[in-house]
Amino acid sequence: MDPRTLSPQFAVSPQITPQDIPALKAQGYRAIIANRPDGEGADQPTFAEIEAAAHAAGMQARYIPISGGMVGDDDVEAFRSALRAVPGPVLAYCRSGTRSATLWSLAQADDMPLPQILAATSTAGYDLSGVVRRIANGGRTPVARPDATHDVVIVGAGAAGISVAASLLSRKPGLDIAIIDPADVHYYQPGWTLVGAGVFTADQTAKDLASLIPSGVTLIKGAVAAFEPASNAVILEGCRVVGYERLVVCPGLKLDWARIPGLVETLGQNGVTSNYRYDLAPYTWKLVQAMRRGRAIFTQPPMPIKCAGAPQKAMYLSGDAWHRAGVLKDIDIQFMNAGGVLFGVKDYVPALMNYVRKYDATLNFFHNLVRIDGPARTAWFDVAAPDTPVRRVEVAFDMIHVTPPQTAPDFIRVSPLADAAGWVDVDQATLRHKTHDNIWSLGDVMNAPNAKTAAAARIQAPVVAENIAADIDGRPACAQYNGYGSCPLTVERGKIVLAEFGYGGKLLPSFPKALIDGTRPSRAAWLLKERILPPVYWRGMLRGHEWMAKPNNTSAP
Asked: How many CB atoms lie within 10 A of CB 205?
């Protein structure tokens, strides 16, 4: 007997015996569903024996046999009806548990998101990739053929997706490209730090998504539910199927606000804010302007996160505003970092530490936000310093800027494209999938060890476009990504420490040191961030103009 939980009210198991029933009863199960036909195995007890033992234990039992693993639509409806009729928790069994897990997945299809279903069954040890389309289709057998097929399908219409589409078209005019995304608005997310500092307004960072899609590219409004790389297909919610010759995956990250108990309920009020959300960045500036004394907390969760410098950027710009207002001496700035260093590339740390001292900020390393009570203005952190037991500390605040935990989206983490940690598994030089030769990935969702920034996507997009074009022509991959990322660390209004680096923390400056020395605060770098980079983004990157981003073509390793 090996019960495997799929939900609080349901578990599956390989074949059970009448002797197992008392133990199942003791574990809290109140009903049994048998999905294995009688006589399938020589040593298999009959359903009548299981039913008698169940009734003797005061449990209910149902018999829904599935022959040869062929689950029909009528079987799913019978299983769904049985789940509604019997008391839970319920244990269903067959020879290995797979048929029972399949029935449950199809029965839940109308009530539970596909990624959540796949995550539950995968955790229990069952691979249901063969029925993904049926789950997406509400548990019913779908039409096998794709609704549409394109030369290149791009998942995600963020900075990475639009840029790679534009770069591809510049190399292959007339290529049939489709971009899949459910959004209506496209955001210039690097601008949100400056919205939170009163430099930009929020509406300067948003544009209608459809207006940014390159001419000739099809925008498919929809959310991806799953991938079928063996069939060259993407499954959308509602079971629309989009086929492809080549696939690019770049949907960005999931901001997991709900992982911190109490956070969702208090965001945007009670002094709780975040520059990681379009609607909250203006609240950050409102709080900074209003604050004249008290404690301000700035949090940073475990890596990876998008723009790893953004949590401290909020701290520096807030500290600068309080310094200019003459109230800094009355404000206690606390930086709570789940990691052990201020910044991952040591060359930039001395300049940053000068500003930590200027704003009299306290650095608290290994502090991870785990709970928040907005009305009580209290936050709790787990302190996990090396070689010491984890301890929990309670900290009161007047204002708190929260950087949420971040993961790959659910539909990526449970997909056959992901590595063990849930990120799209690519070669870090060519950005081609390690297993599926006609799939590439870029942006925040892939597993190359680079900083997750828009500047990184600006360099990655031409690399992916160049390598897809080479593949179309039958040539080997010739463009390589060096891990470039950029983090303009806004240390005060008017000055930036321009961090530019690649794999292994190697410095990769874009400008002569005499113009911009990235290891020192610079007004020229601020001008770049405030005045030059936004138009480069809107008018260059998203239109396929590879200004300072053309890949160096070399032989692939």
From this structure: 21
